[in-house]
Amino acid sequence: MTWDVALILGIDGLANGAVYLLAGLGLVLIFSVTRVVFVPFGDVAAFAALSLAAFETGRQPATIGLVLTLALLAMVVEIVSLVRRGEMAAIPRAVLGWGVLPAIPCALAWAVAGQQGLPHAVFIITAILLVVPITPLVARVALQPIADASVLVLLIVSLALHFLLSGLGLLFFGPEGSRTLPLASGALSLGTFSVSGQVILMVASAIVLSAIFFLAFERTVVGKALRATAVNRVGARLVGIRPARTALLAYTFASLLAGLIGVLVAPVTTMYYDSGFLIGLKAFVAAIIGGLVSYPLTALGALAVGVVESFGSFWSGALKDVIVFSLLIPVLMLRSAFTRHPEEEAEEIDQ
Amino acid sequence: MKRLVRSALGAAIAFAMAGAALAADLKVGLSVSLSGPNSSLGVPYAKGMQAAVAYKPEINGKKVQLIVLDDGSDPTTAGRNARKLIEEEKVDVIMGTSGVPAAIAMAQVARETKTPMIGLTPISLQGADLEWTVTVAQPTDLMVAAVVDRMKKDGVKTVGYIGFSDAWGDLVYNALMKAAEPAGIKVVTNERYARSDASVTGQVLKIVAARPDAVMTGGAGTPGALPYLALSERGFKGPVYGQHGLINADFVRVSGKAANGTQMPTGPIIVAEQLPNNYPTKKVALDFRDVFQKVNNAPTTDAYSAYSFDGYMVFADAAARAMPKAEPGTPQFRVALRDAIMSAKEVVGTHGVYNFKQGQLYGVDERARVIVKLENGQWKLVP
Question: For this UniProt entry, which residues form the secretion signal (chain B) (predicted)?
Answer without folding.
Answer: 1-23
